[in-house]
């Protein structure tokens, strides 16, 4: 079925994720004293329970799909944790295959990070695993499956296993009237000869890493999609976001895609960017369009000062009309939802930073990324410094040292690069510098370069990878170790 067939199901979606209930545990009955000590750890109830099981996602009344989700829904419930307060999460896997839950953006030990490469235990089929950690830093994080999928489009981030995770700090000023959580998502993946990202700004920008001679061999299959949603509802199938004139709305935006970079706009309104990947930016700025790659989160304040009924959605017409949009409805307004295409503008992380220069790094690590067209048979393969995973002891960090990672993207694809268990500071992108912007995922433009500074302060195995599932599955990852 052609995805353009879905245009007729126009409209929007905004499930109030904050209303999703966590499955909280109840206290254990009292035990005899002689048994209590031996059984205390096993018998203690968790703060949060997650159940991995099949779920039905009703994108529209006539478009219902089956996937795997958390606690009977997709997205899963919003999880809220207190920064610095230890939390216990029981995960029950009610499927026939092993699973992992990754806590994206948290500074936690590798054995509970939810990653096979870091030696986190799997949650066995029809089994249970207990994650116990002290959540930090504060901010908007998220959780999702981290298993490899390969050619199986019913595994990993192709499924509905994802949800927001908020690490709450006592210092949150809360200077807004309404808080909304919006997760972008595609469904029903299929293999496609061409990638279908939104407008690729990197195609017209600087290309410092473009090779003098390009590999012209036929490319392998990419992943495409036929269905689209925000918060599990397609355009026209859910309740609108209801606002009043003068409201300050805090929007938490997550790209929960397995593979697609997206651009988002709200006609007649502007986004004041206050955080990237959950971390406050040094210099909040106002933009008309947000570019967001898989794994990234953006926090933005929207001043509601244009009464009417609008569509907040992605700028790609076929994808937005196919479902990736949400209606914003002012009080006492009953008009047809409006969409007005925004003017073309290049997304620039560096405008949100400061002018101060970073200290000189103790070590610089160059990382060159290349695509091998059809290098994995039907699919492309990927190399880091000319090799595929595991890069045994190639990338070694010294505890306490400042390491500058230079990402050299020698492919036409824009890659969302993620480093586990750490944050890094953006130093430069395509020669433009800034300081103070802390992230855990950065999109490096096609044939572009990005430099980031990493303080090695989280000992243990640390996975680095492209957050596009297919790229990670076929070689685009490396394991960092501490000396």
CATH homologous superfamily descriptor of the largest domain: Cupredoxins -  blue copper proteins
- Unreliable residue runs: 1-41
Gap between N and C termini: 52 Å
Structural class: mainly beta
Give me the number of helical elements.
Answer: 3
Rg (CA only): 22 Å
- What do we call the CATH topology of the largest domain? Immunoglobulin-like
Give a verbal description of the structure.
The structure is a single chain. The chain is globular, with a radius of gyration of 22 Å. The model is unreliable at 1-41 (pLDDT under 50). With 483 residues, the chain is mainly beta. It is built from 3 helices and 33 strands. It folds into 3 domains: 10-172, Cupredoxins -  blue copper proteins (Immunoglobulin-like); 179-348, Cupredoxins -  blue copper proteins (Immunoglobulin-like); 363-482, Cupredoxins -  blue copper proteins (Immunoglobulin-like), CATH 2.60.40.420. The termini are far apart. The strands form 7 sheets. Strands 22, 23, 25, 27, 28, 29 and 31 form a 7-stranded mixed β-sheet that branches. Strands 12-9-14-19-16-17 form a 6-stranded mixed β-sheet, with no helix packed on it. A hairpin with a 2-residue loop joins strand 27 and strand 28 (432-433). The protein has helices at residues 33-43, 317-321, 469-473; strands spanning 48-60, 63-70, 79-82, 87-93, 101-104, 128-133, 139-145, 162-168, 178-187, 190-192, 222-224, 227-230, 241-243, 248-255, 262-265, 271-276, 279-287, 289-292, 297-303, 309-314, 325-330, 363-376, 379-384, 395-397, 402-409, 415-419, 424-429, 432-433, 438-439, 441-444, 449-455, 462-466, 477-482.
């Amino acid at each position: 079925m052609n995805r353009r067939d879905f245009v007729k199901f126009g409209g929007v979606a905004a499930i109030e994720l904050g209303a999703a209930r966590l499955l909280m545990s109840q206290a254990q009955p009292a035990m005899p004293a002689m048994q209590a000590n031996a059984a205390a750890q096993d018998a203690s109830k968790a703060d949060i329970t997650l159940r991995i099981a099949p779920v039905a996602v009703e994108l529209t009344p006539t478009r219902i799909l089956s996937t795997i989700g958390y606690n009977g829904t997709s997205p899963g419930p919003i999880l809220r944790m207190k920064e610095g307060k230890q939390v216990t999460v029981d995960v029950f896997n009610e499927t026939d295959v092993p699973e992992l839950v990754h806590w994206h953006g948290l500074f936690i030990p590798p054995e509970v990070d939810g990653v096979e490469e870091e030696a986190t235990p799997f949650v066995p089929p029809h089994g249970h695993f207990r994650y116990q950690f002290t959540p930090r830093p504060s901010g908007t994080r998220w959780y999702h499956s981290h298993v490899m999928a390969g050619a199986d489009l019913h595994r990993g981030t192709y499924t509905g296993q994802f949800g927001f995770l908020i690490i709450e700090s006592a210092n949150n000023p809360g200077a807004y009237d309404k808080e909304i959580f919006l997760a972008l998502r595609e469904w029903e993946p299929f293999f496609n000869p061409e990638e279908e990202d939104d407008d690729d700004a990197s195609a017209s920008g600087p290309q410092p890493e473009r090779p003098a001679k390009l590999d012209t061999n036929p490319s392998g299959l990419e992943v495409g999609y036929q269905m689209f949603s925000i918060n599990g509802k397609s355009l026209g199938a859910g309740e609108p976001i209801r606002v009043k004139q003068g409201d300050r709305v805090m929007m938490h935006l997550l790209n929960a895609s397995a593979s697609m970079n997206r651009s988002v706009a709200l006609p007649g309104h502007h986004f004041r960017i206050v955080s990237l990947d959950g971390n406050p930016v040094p210099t909040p700025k106002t933009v008309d369009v947000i570019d967001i790659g898989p794994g990234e989160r953006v926090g933005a304040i929207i001043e509601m000062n244009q009464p009417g009924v609008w569509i907040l959605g992605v700028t790609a017409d076929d994808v937005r009309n196919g479902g990736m949009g949400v209606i914003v409805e002012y009080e006492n307004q009953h008009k047809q939802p409006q969409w007005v295409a925004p003017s073309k503008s290049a997304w620039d992380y560096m405008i949100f930073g400061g002018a101060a220069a970073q200290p000189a790094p103790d070590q610089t690590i160059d990382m060159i990324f290349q695509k091998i067209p059809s290098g994995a048979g039907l699919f492309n393969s990927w190399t880091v410094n000319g090799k595929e995973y595991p890069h045994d002891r190639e990338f070694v960090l010294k505890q306490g040292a400042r390491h500058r990672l230079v990402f050299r993207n020698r492919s036409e694809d824009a890659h969302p690069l993620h480093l586990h268990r750490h944050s890094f500071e953006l130093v430069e992108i395509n020669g433009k510098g800034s300081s103070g912007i802390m992230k855990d995922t950065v999109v490096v433009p096609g044939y572009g370069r990005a430099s980031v500074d990493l303080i090695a302060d989280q000992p243990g195995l640390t996975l680095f990878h492209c957050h596009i599932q297919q790229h990670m599955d076929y070689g685009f990852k490396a394991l960092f170790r501490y000396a």
